[in-house]
Write a structure and sequence with these properties.
This protein has 289 residues and is of the alpha/beta class. Helices cover 32% and strands 24% of the residues.
Length: 289
Amino acid sequence: MITTTSRRSLFAFWAGSSRYRHCGDSLGLEHSPHRIELPRLLQGCKRVLDLACGDGANLAFLPEGIDYTGCDYSAYALETLMSKTDHLSMAKRVFAGDVRQLPVETGSQDAVISSYSFEHFLEVPTILNECDRVLRPGGLLVIFGPDYTAPNAFSPPQAAIIKGNRVRLLTYTLGRLARRLRHARGRDRVLFEYVEPLVLSEATFQPDHDLTHLTNHGMIGKYMKSLVYQQVELVTTAPSPDSLLKKAFATLGLWGKFGDARVVLKKPIEPVKPRKIQVTERLVHRQPD
């Protein structure tokens, strides 16, 4: 995994950089079609935890009367969130902290939402277990953001690795395809892949160059199913293929898993023993492996 020193540098960057928050605003993610679905998805939910909430982009899409709790590592982002005047009827509480250890009471939340955040996370199984802990029986877990399921769907750090090199492109694509097929066999294998973020070596920050997790919403759903969650939705919003390679994946049925995605999962009402699975976490280095 990423070294302890690099991890500390990355967390320090997230915590203290207002420049990072402004770069995020330039991406225009507040207009995500997945956010528009939040009122429907959260119907009947009163207590909602917004995981890695940033400056509160989800607030404008939440139903009235929500008891809202926001968590983020950036104090600057949380100050911006609390200054927003929309949804004045909403009870808002925020805290700065590590999403791997949430200071939230067990079983206290009707829903946990996370938007455009899981691609920034390390130790994804630990975070998913925390979501499970704070959700009440029958509660909802809603996650959406970029999806890198397709073998040729590269995050910005990976795109910088390839840099137009066709040999690297082919090597990475075939390697990822082989790993995904290996872990797709059966329901007892789950793979989470990570990449070293470029922000640790760049003089000037570029949007999304701090991404670490190659988010695969299908794998997230598969992991939560091992905790006996019901998968309510798995929705992708794939752009049209614009190259021969992408069109080939579309023909194979893989292209529909490229782009943004949303997974919605429901916690079982009655306590159920989790199913044993093999979880692999793999670091993709900045040099081809």
